[in-house]
């Protein structure tokens, strides 16, 4: 208890000496730590971070126990490991820098701008899927999250374009050369189209599911991606997440699901009330039919 009281006494005595730049310094470090945590959320990155933490603990223990040789080896591993980490996380670092370069200062400091962009991407995707479902056009859209899909992106054609309903419909147009593959969406842009995805190895899924659905489930099993699928035979909309398939979704349900998965921090009350009212009216009309 005395240690806690002493800590707060020392902290209160330091408060008058804190300058504005000290606060800025702390906020910048906190922001960088947050970005690093977000970067290592993926399964592979988390394993690497866990390994580094174990080596750090072992290095500390060997130093306390005076195990000089083992401590020397671990120190050298950590020195080399810093360079190795930069190589391992090169795709994530490059993507972060590319995203930073595309934004101006106002956009970097504004979370609302990013939230509006996510809403726009989801809205355009839902519009395209609704139209293509009526036209019985096969669709396979993969929303990349924390686990990079660069390996599968390389199997397709680089697009690097803004997400729009018209572009998605053109990419999946039956006579288009890329319509049989998957579209990968990274952040707010279409990264690639015509991509080849791994098929699921789950033999318990329904036999009426074709290659498109099996590929969608497959990529959701090996990553944390959200996959939207439209059946070419029935026109039904499905979503695959973590190897689970949700089928026969209405466009409104698809929109809600994508918002929950891709923008979980958003609350219903923060969205446009007019848009919510129009959606409610549409849902009531559909229910009457």
Name the features.
289 residues, alpha+beta, YojJ-like (1, 7-stranded mixed sheet, 7 strands, 13% strand, elongated, EC 2.7.7.85, cell membrane
Biggest sheet, strands in spatial order? Answer: 2-4-3-1-5-6-7
- Rounded to the nearest angstrom, the radius of gyration is 24 Å
Domains, number: 2
How can the largest sheet be summarized? 7 strands, mixed
Q: Poorly predicted ranges (pLDDT <50, ≥5 residues)?
A: 267-271
Basic shape: elongated
Indicate the CATH class of the largest domain. Answer: Alpha Beta
Order of helices and strands, N to C? HHHHHHHEHEHEEHEEEHH
Discrete helix count: 12
SS-based class? alpha+beta
The fraction of residues assigned to DSSP E strands is 5-15%
Name of the CATH homologous superfamily of the largest domain: DNA integrity scanning protein, DisA, N-terminal domain
Terminus-to-terminus distance: 68 Å
What is the strand and helix layout of this fold?
Layout: H1 2-14, H2 20-39, H3 43-64, H4 68-88, H5 90-101, H6 105-109, H7 111-134, E1 139-144, H8 150-153, E2 157-162, H9 165-171, E3 182-186, E4 189-195, H10 211-222, E5 226-230, E6 237-241, E7 244-246, H11 251-262, H12 273-288
Parallel strand pairs: 1-3
Antiparallel strand pairs: 1-5, 2-4, 3-4, 5-6, 6-7
Helix pairs in contact: 3-4, 7-9, 7-11
Region (Disordered): 267-289
Organism: Faecousia intestinalis
EC number: 2.7.7.85
Would you write up a description of this structure?
By secondary structure, this protein is α+β, with helices and mostly antiparallel strands. It has two domains: 2-101, no CATH class; 111-264, YojJ-like (1 (3-Layer(aba) Sandwich). Helices cover 58% and strands 13% of the residues. The chain contains twelve helices and seven strands. Strands 2-4-3-1-5-6-7 form a seven-stranded mixed β-sheet, with helices on both faces. Strand 5 and strand 6 (237-241) form a beta hairpin. Helix 7 (111-134) crosses helix 9 (165-171) and helix 7 packs antiparallel against helix 11 (251-262). The longest helix has 24 residues, at 111-134. It is elongated. The termini are far apart. Residues 267-271 have low confidence and may be disordered. Probably a homodimer. Belongs to the adenylate cyclase family. DacA/CdaA subfamily. Keywords: ATP-binding, Cell membrane, Membrane, Nucleotide-binding, Nucleotidyltransferase, Transferase, Transmembrane, Transmembrane helix. Residues 267-289 are annotated as: Disordered. This is Diadenylate cyclase.
């Amino acid at each position: 208890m005395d240690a806690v009281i002493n800590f707060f006494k020392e902290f209160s005595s330091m408060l008058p000496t804190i300058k504005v730049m000290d606060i800025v310094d702390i906020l910048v470090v906190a922001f960088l730590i947050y970005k690093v945590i977000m970067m290592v959320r993926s399964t592979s990155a988390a394993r690497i971070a866990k390994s580094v933490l174990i080596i750090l603990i072992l290095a500390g223990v060997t130093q306390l126990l005076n195990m000089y040789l083992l401590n020397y080896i671990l120190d050298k591993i950590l020195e080399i490991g810093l360079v190795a980490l930069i190589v391992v996380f090169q795709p994530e670092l490059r993507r972060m820098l590319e995203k930073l370069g595309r934004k101006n200062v106002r956009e970097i400091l504004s979370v609302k701008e990013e939230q509006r962009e996510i809403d726009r991407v989801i809205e355009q995707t839902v519009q395209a899927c609704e139209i293509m479902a009526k036209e019985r056009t096969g669709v396979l859209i993969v929303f990349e999250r924390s686990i990079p899909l660069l390996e599968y992106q390389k199997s397709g054609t680089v697009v690097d374009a803004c997400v729009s309903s018209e572009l998605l419909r053109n990419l999946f147009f039956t006579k288009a050369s890329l319509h049989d593959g998957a579209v990968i969406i990274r952040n707010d842009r279409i990264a690639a189209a015509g991509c080849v995805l791994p098929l699921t190895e789950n033999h318990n899924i329904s036999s009426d599911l074709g290659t498109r659905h099996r590929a969608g489930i497959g990529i959701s099993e090996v990553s944390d991606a959200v996959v939207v699928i439209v059946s070419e035979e029935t026109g039904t909309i499905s979503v695959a997440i973590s190897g689970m398939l949700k089928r026969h979704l209405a466009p409104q349900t698809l929109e809600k699901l994508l918002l929950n998965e891709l923008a979980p921090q958003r609350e219903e009350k923060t969205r446009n009330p007019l848009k919510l009212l129009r959606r409610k009216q549409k849902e009531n009309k559909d229910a009457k039919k």
